[in-house]
Design brief:
Order of helices and strands: HH
Helix content: over 70%
Shape: rod-shaped
Structural class: mainly alpha
Number of helices: 2
Strand content: under 5%
Radius of gyration: 30 Å
Number of strands: 0
């Protein structure tokens, strides 16, 4: 059975669109993986900062007396 030229061109166009769609999907998947890695890293950093602030680290709250300038 022979395909009409219009049908064959439409099939070629669909194959091209499918190939571009697959490529775009792969790129989006890579972006999602990278973003998830960044989110995981930020979560670890926040947990570390919270831990250091509860251990009396740099971010720990200080008394108001420590906030007064030296001349008071």
């Amino acid at each position: 059975m022979e395909h009409a030229p219009d049908t064959e061109q439409r099939l070629i166009d669909l194959e091209i669109k499918a190939a571009f769609s697959e490529d775009l999907l792969d790129q989006l998947n890579e972006i999602i993986v990278h973003q998830q890695q960044q989110i995981d890293q930020l979560i670890r950093e926040i947990a570390h900062l919270r831990q250091s602030s509860t251990d009396g680290g740099v971010g720990a709250p200080r008394s108001l007396h420590d906030e007064l300038p030296p001349h008071y």
